[in-house]
Amino acid sequence: MQPIKVETEKGHEIVQRVILSQIDEGLLQPGQKLLSVVDLSASFGVGRSTIREALSALKATGWIDVKHGGGTFVNKVLPTSQSISRNPFEESENLREILEVRIWLESGSAAFAAQRRNDKDLEKLKQIITQMQQALEMNDTQMSEQADIEFHLAIAAASHNDLLNSLMSSLSNKLSETIGKTRQLWFFEDKSSSELLFKEHQSIYDAIAAQNSELSSQLIKTHLHKVENVLNQRGIQD
């Protein structure tokens, strides 16, 4: 008898499901403004990063609209069962394919981020770098993983390309899974690996801050190709 894999629903999936249910039942109307991330976090009893993941997924599938500085709103025109496109990122379980998509997508995001980033973008990235450093000092794997995810999403946001940002948001759930898996394989086997990972993120930030688009793109590629090499060494095909 083949073993049965039991999937446990993740926090952001629960939040996403509840918000969708509220929209479906009319408790949240088209055009209505949602509570802030802070208030939603308190309401659901989860961290802000969990709320952001849920909102990113809802935005990617057309249910909500996030206006920078203006809040989050239920879309005035809601998706229908016919118009909802399937998210190939969510359906894919192939770690290598996801990584290959990340290499191409994130190298472009980093190049645009270096060209277009503003002071607010740099402040956000710097805050995340600080969180990474704190996680390294505390040897807090979970905190470091979450900061890693937020760093890559913040780069996409700094590209100021809505389509790139939307694609990265669509990938956010898989980003969380793949970062966790690859860290288990290599990054956190010893302290030196953790320190090297931090330095790589610091170098990417420095290149974006210096508006060096070519270097920013190359550093992202090098960073992700290292993960690809780990998969090759371990003989992992998916």
Give a description of the structure.
The protein is mainly alpha-helical. It folds into 2 domains: 11-74, Winged helix-like DNA-binding domain superfamily/Winged helix DNA-binding domain (Arc Repressor Mutant, subunit A, Orthogonal Bundle); 88-234, Four Helix Bundle (Hemerythrin (Met), subunit A), CATH 1.20.120.530. It has 11 helices and 2 strands. It has helices at 11-24, 37-44, 48-60, 88-91, 95-116, 119-138, 141-158, 162-170, 172-187, 191-209, 213-234; strands at residues 64-67, 71-74. Strands 1-2 form a two-stranded antiparallel sheet. β1 (64-67) and β2 (71-74) form a beta hairpin. α5 (95-116) runs parallel beside α10 (191-209) and α6 packs antiparallel against α7. The two termini are 23 Å apart. Mean pLDDT is 80; it is low at 1-6 and 81-85. This is FadR/GntR family transcriptional regulator. Pfam families: FCD (PF07729), GntR (PF00392). Residues 9-77 form the HTH gntR-type domain. Keywords: DNA-binding, Transcription, Transcription regulation.
Low-confidence stretches: 1-6, 81-85
What are the secondary-structure elements, in order, as H or E? HHHEEHHHHHHHH
Helical proportion?
55-70%
Structural category: mainly alpha
The helix count comes to: 11
CATH class of the largest domain: Mainly Alpha
* CATH architecture heading of the largest domain: Up-down Bundle
Please give the radius of gyration in angstroms. 18 Å
How many β-strands, per DSSP?
2
- Give the N-to-C terminal Cα separation: 23 Å
Q: Spell out the CATH superfamily of the largest domain.
A: GntR ligand-binding domain-like
Please state how the strands of the largest beta sheet are arranged side by side.
Answer: 1-2
Largest sheet: number of strands, sense, barrel closure: 2 strands, antiparallel
What sort of overall outline do the alpha carbons produce when their principal axes are compared?
A: globular
